[in-house]
Amino acid sequence: MISDRTIRVGAVVDDTVAEGPGRRFAVWVQGCSIRCPGCFNPHLWGAKGGTGIGAAELAERALAVPGIDGVTLLGGEPFEQARPLADFASRLAAQGLSVMTFSGFTYRELNGAGAPDGAAELLSATDLLVSGPYLSGQPDLRRPWVGSTNQEFHFLTDRLRHVEAGLADLPDRIEVRVTASGEVTVNGWADLDQLDTLLADDFRRRNRPA
Ligand code: SF4
């Protein structure tokens, strides 16, 4: 049953070091109406796909992962599901975990009169917000986790503020997972040429004649 506490989830990685500081439980939500040209996740644009998971159930799954430092919300557009995600994030924050949220909306849009429903709740459950649409013509090769230079970091609480001073020194990372059946998934961020090379090498290795 879909309720106002249900999150439409496109994908989850339980434990990653490529989506924010430290080890994080990452949730890619399903649905984004912003539709930036060049977006890497167009399969997450449609609001009708994904799997509906209750905020409490997803929080239980995150809290069962040993040793994580926090959760990262990305997408898709988290602020188009702000209320259930605020519920989810608050449950983790109450257990001492940090919350990092990505948005294609600008900080001004999230705080203005036309802000998405529930935006204030998700902002108040977020420690570190990365805001702004992806602009493919302005690639950011300097800061970690972001795709374009217009995107802004907002440290909304002190919980992750220690990251701020060393931001430019943190590397981008990508993680490649290969399942037993050979399915390859990639998350994180890297220079496009590096990603092409890596995936081409991986493809060649897996298809090398015996
Ligand atoms: S806001 Fe994010 S998910 Fe939405 S189109 Fe832009 S880059 Fe893609």
Verbal overview:
It is built from five helices and nine strands, in the order βββαβαβααββββα. With 210 residues, it is an alpha/beta fold. The chain has two domains: 6-171, TIM Barrel, CATH 3.20.20; 173-210, no CATH class. The protein has a seven-stranded mixed β-sheet with strand order 3-1-2-4-5-6-7. A hairpin with a 7-residue loop joins strand 1 and strand 2. The longest helix is centred in the C-terminal third of the chain and has 15 residues, at 192-206. The radius of gyration is 17 Å and the shape is globular. The model has no long low-confidence stretch (mean pLDDT 89). Iron/sulfur cluster (SF4) binds at residues 32, 34-36, 39, 41, 44, 75-77, 104, 133-134. Residues 32, 34-36, 39, 41, 44, 75-77, 104, 133-134 line the site of iron/sulfur cluster (SF4). It holds the Pfam family Fer4_12. One of its GO terms (molecular function) is [formate-C-acetyltransferase]-activating enzyme activity. Its cofactor is [4Fe-4S] cluster.
Pairing-aware structural class of the strands and helices?
Answer: alpha/beta
Mean pLDDT rating = 89
Shape: globular
**CATH-defined fold name of the largest domain:** TIM Barrel
Strand order of the largest sheet: 3-1-2-4-5-6-7
* Fourth CATH level, the homologous superfamily of the largest domain: Aldolase class I
Radius of gyration: 17 Å
Give helix % range: 10-25%
Strand content: 15-25%
- What top-tier CATH class of the largest domain fits best? Alpha Beta
Give the low-confidence spans: none
SSE order: EEEHEHEHHEEEEH
Number of domains: 2
Cofactor: [4Fe-4S] cluster
Keywords: 4Fe-4S, Iron, Iron-sulfur, Metal-binding, S-adenosyl-L-methionine
GO molecular function, one term: ribonucleoside-diphosphate reductase activity, thioredoxin disulfide as acceptor
Pfam families: Fer4_12
